Automatic annotation (TrEMBL):
GO CC annotation: cytosol; small ribosomal subunit
PANTHER family in alphabetical order: 30S RIBOSOMAL PROTEIN S13/40S RIBOSOMAL PROTEIN S18, SMALL RIBOSOMAL SUBUNIT PROTEIN US13M
Family per similarity comment: Belongs to the universal ribosomal protein uS13 family.
Name this protein carries in UniProt: Small ribosomal subunit protein uS13
Length: 133
């Protein structure tokens, strides 16, 4: 497993697919990086020489915002939205979907597990409701 910028990329996969394990690099960017670094995207990551890895690292560091820098930028953007009190910021703060999705049904990933609201009938159901709190 070659190590690129502190991230182990899978060595048995083609370089084009291995680069996607780096946060901020998707399919299109992986192809673009291979072209800029003058590397064969179909070559296995294990077959890269130290010189190839150094060339790849220099291209990634100089031309792209990835990993920690990108994560910081995204979180700063979200903090800014929250601080100015925009609609999107309020949705982030409340833990609700931000991009206009419906919330009457679905949205369980953002909202979390269902919580029963109202009267719970039956002794077993009440004890289960208490345990859920």
């Amino acid at each position: 497993m070659p190590r690129v910028l502190g991230i182990d990329i899978p060595g048995r996969k083609k370089l084009e697919y291995s680069l996607r394990y780096i946060y901020g690099i998707g399919p299109a960017l992986a192809k673009e990086v291979c072209e800029k670094a003058k590397l064969d995207p179909n070559k296995k990551a294990d077959d890269m020489t130290d010189e190839d890895i150094q060339h790849l690292v220099s291209v990634l560091q100089n031309d792209y915002r990835i990993e920690g820098d990108l994560r910081r930028e995204v979180s700063a953007n979200i903090r800014r939205l929250i601080s100015i009190g925009s609609y999107r910021g309020r949705r982030h703060r409340a833990g609700l979907p931000v991009r206009g999705q419906r919330t009457k049904t679905n949205a369980r990933t953002r909202k979390g597990a269902k919580r029963t609201v109202g009267v719970v009938r039956g002794k077993e159901a009440r004890s289960a409701a208490k345990a859920a709190k």
